[in-house]
Structures are given as structure tokens and as C-alpha cells.
Amino acid sequence: MREKMAVCISVLMVAVAWSTGGAEAGCASSSLCCRQHNNTCVANGPRLKSPTSETCYCDEYCLNTGDCCTDFSSVCRPVDCRLGDWNDWEDCNTQCGRGVMTRKRRVIVDARNGGKPCGSVSERRLCWGTNCKVARSTNGGNVEEQRETGKIIPSVYGSWRSNKMYDPFKDPLRSNLYEEYHKHNLVTRPMYHTMYEVVRSSPICGAKFAPQWARALKKGASICVECQQFAMHKRLGVRCKGHGALQKETRWDAVITPGCHGIWTMKSAANNGPCPASKEQAFIFI
């Protein structure tokens, strides 16, 4: 018991000696309080974990090593980081297709002396650029568009492109559409629709066994066809293959009814959005 008391008295005497003996004793006497890991931020005085030490540190790293001066916590008080409000989201970093947009916030007060560190100062999220250059002909001069054949199906099938709640083995057509939806990179250019006049159609389109929608593809009929995002091709300028050229005759093919095909004329320039609700006979490109 006497030995333990002697050790305690000895430690106390050392501490008193540093504080009253005229020598610098700790961070306050040395006017030190340094950032991060700084080996030059040293003062005379005992350490937290070594009362008999002659030197101690006043930098933030001393909290990790336990060699801080005994007055470090009172002199170099912890300061938590303080962040400003988030700025508005920046524009998407791509004009067409998948991209990333960012927002940031600034650091108002840096964390010091073991205070709470700063959180994230930037955030990112997915975005889609819709300013795509679309190679659509307005005067019929695009030879490639005139050579293409527009492959169409009734617009009722369009919803199945993104519908996961069905059995793909029951309907091969819907299964194929669903697979195509997941297989290719999507674009987010708004869908557009175009009006066509049927110039010619094969006899099979009007046969008794043909579905009602195929019979609507008769000579002189006016139909609306949508180009949805899933059917757009980037290599063609983010458009649907076979949408034709204004006031020019091009070919179409109703793929669900083999042998039902013909020729049509694009009667109006493409307009953004789906076919008007008043159009009973609406189709989509595939």
C-alpha cells in the first residue's frame, strides 16, 4: 500500500513540476493546436498515457497514438464539421442517352481536433439526355429511310415491352419483345407518332381469317404509328427503322400476320407523343 502511494505521489510531483517549474507545460503554454499529423507540433510536458514523459504533442493525430499533452482536450476542443445546403442538380452530362448529373455542397467549417468529420460533399444520380439528333427526312431526300421497311404490330402490344408479370412461354411474340427490352441499351428520346395513308396492301390483310386490325390496313386507310423508345436505334439517329420519308412511298410489313404487307405514304411530319386517343387503328414500330 505504501509503495502504491509513493508512485502516485511521484507522478503528482512530476506533473506539478511541469506546471510550476517555469518550463512550458502542454498545449496552452506552448500556444499549439495543430491540424492532422504534425511531428513538429510538440510541447514540453507529460503525455496522457505517459505522465513521466518530457514531451507531448498537440496535433490531431495524437488522439490516435495517445501521446497528447494532458491539456490537449481542453485547449484544442473538438470542432465538428459543418456543411452548407445542397446546390441545385447540374445538367445531365450527356445530351443524348444515359448520363449522370451531380450536385454539391460546400464545407463551412472543417472538422478539427477529433471532431465529427464531414460527410459527402457531392452526390450523383442517373439521368437521361433527350436532345438527340434524329435523322428524320422532311423532304424525302434520305435514301436510307426510303429503302427501309417499317415492321409494325398493333399498339396494344406496346405495354408488354415493360410488363414482367406474365408467362413468356405462352406468347412467343410478347416474350421476344420482353427479351429485346432487357437486351439492348434504352434511349429516352420522347416517343413520336406519324400518320400514314395505305397505298397498297396484300390480299391476305383483308382475308376472312385475318384479325380485325389487319383488315384495317386496306387501301386508302389512314393509320397512326408510334415510334416508342424501345424500338429506336442509336445508329440510325435515335429513330425507328422504316418510319419512311415525308410524302414518299415506302414499304410496311405487319409481322404478326405473315403475308400481310404493302406500301404506304407518310402524310405528316413526326410529332412527339403517342397516337391520339381518337385513332382506333394505332400501331407501333418494332
Average of per-residue pLDDT values? 78
Strand content: 25-35%
The structural domain count equals: 3
Estimate percent helicity.
10-25%
C-alpha termini separation:
93 Å
- Indicate the structural class: alpha+beta
What labels describe this entry?
single chain; 286 residues; alpha+beta; TSP-1 type 1 repeat; 7 helices; rod-shaped; disordered N terminus
Descriptive account of the structure:
This protein is an alpha+beta fold and 286 residues long. It folds into 3 domains: 2-75, no CATH class; 82-130, TSP-1 type 1 repeat (Single Sheet), CATH 2.20.100.10; 143-285, no CATH class. The chain has helices at 2-20, 27-30, 62-65, 72-75, 143-147, 172-183, 212-215; strands at residues 42-44, 55-57, 82-83, 96-104, 107-109, 122-130, 149-154, 192-201, 222-227, 232-233, 239-240, 249-254, 261-266, 271-272, 282-285. A 6-stranded mixed β-barrel has the order 7-12-13-8-9-15. Strands 1-2 form a two-stranded antiparallel ribbon. The longest helix is centred in the first third of the chain and has 19 residues, at 2-20. The chain is rod-shaped and about 105 Å long. It starts with a helix and ends with a strand.
In terms of topology, how is this protein built?
Layout (H helix, E strand, L loop, with lengths): L1 H19 L6 H4 L11 E3 L10 E3 L4 H4 L6 H4 L6 E2 L12 E9 L2 E3 L12 E9 L12 H5 L1 E6 L17 H12 L8 E10 L10 H4 L6 E6 L4 E2 L5 E2 L8 E6 L6 E6 L4 E2 L9 E4 L1
Parallel strand pairs: 7-12, 9-15
Antiparallel strand pairs: 1-2, 3-5, 4-6, 7-15, 8-9, 8-13, 8-14, 10-11, 12-13
